[in-house]
Write a structure and sequence with these properties.
The structure holds two protein chains of two kinds. By secondary structure, chain A is α/β, with parallel strands linked by helices. Chain A is built from six helices and five strands, in the order βαβαααβαβαβ. The model of chain B has no long low-confidence stretch (mean pLDDT about 90).
């Protein structure tokens, strides 16, 4: 037998941000985990709820302010339409790389059998209800439920 | 790299168990590989996926991602995971005798 470390067999990924760059990494990691045959859960909390909110899912944008890696001066990044423009450009590149838009990605990840849940505290705080979320969401759960669900696997916070 | 014998053929495998030379693959080998991975019988749908993966590999140099499989193989993403529970792209690629697909999606 080799001394290779044991493989990760399960991940639970928390999505706490609602920007395009805040959401995609978590979706790619969850989808990739399922593709590798691992168990995966996604837990959407705080602004991350936008990724699965029916009214918001089609309008996720890149943050152009407060993001030095965008290399756009903050004042320029704050001009009206900048976030939309940056999102449009990035979406075109992603399409070329065969990365699906967020609504299609969420649907596909649901089809992979990944668990998808929203955080009760955040849902209450934003005054949202079950019907506000895409059909892939399996439930509104507490932090305790989340830890139960994550048992025996790795937790990733994004 | 290692060598394994499937259906009477000595096959070269890389460290992760994927074929080094996809031309060494036969349908009999696929049946044995599938059994070893927990698939007792390869159905028509399994074969559709395996043949599609080999075709893509020989045309493009890499196996398709799950998204491409779901969109173009005629088998939905949901069904792909039912057919190949240990991760469709990877498990199907191994059974199809092609290298592990490189895509992230």
């Amino acid at each position: 037998m080799s001394d290779a470390p044991e493989k990760i067999t399960k991940v639970s990924i928390i999505v706490s941000k609602g920007s395009l760059e805040g959401i995609y990494p978590a979706l790619i990691m969850a989808n990739g985990a399922r593709a590798e045959g691992m168990d995966a859960n996604l837990f959407f909390t705080f602004f991350g709820l936008d990724a699965v909110n029916k009214k918001r899912i089609d309008h996720i944008k890149v943050a152009t302010v407060g993001n030095p890696a965008m290399h756009i001066p903050t004042l320029i990044g704050g001009l009206p339409g900048m976030s939309g423009l940056a999102t449009h450009m990035m979406s075109k590149t992603m399409d070329k790389l065969d990365i699906p838009p967020i609504p299609e990605f969420i649907e596909m990840i649901g089809d992979t059998g990944c668990g998808m849940y929203v955080c009760k505290a955040s849902v209450d705080m934003f005054d949202l209800h079950e019907e506000d979320f895409v059909e892939q969401i399996q439930g509104i759960i507490t932090v305790g439920d989340f830890y139960d669900m994550a048992a025996g696997g790795q937790i990733i916070f994004t | 790299m290692s060598t394994a014998t499937y259906a009477g053929v000595a096959v070269e495998l890389n460290d992760e168990g994927f074929f080094v030379d996809p031309n060494q693959w036969t349908r009999d080998i696929a049946v044995e590989l599938a059994k070893a991975d927990g698939i007792d019988t390869l159905t028509d749908q399994h074969w559709t996926v395996l043949e599609f993966m080999r075709k893509e590999y020989f045309e493009k140099g890499t196996g398709p991602t799950v998204r491409v499989l779901g969109k173009t193989s005629g088998v939905s993403v949901k069904d792909l995971y039912l057919l190949f529970p240990k991760g469709p792209a990877k498990m199907a690629a191994r059974i199809a005798g092609i290298p592990k697909p490189k895509g992230c999606i």
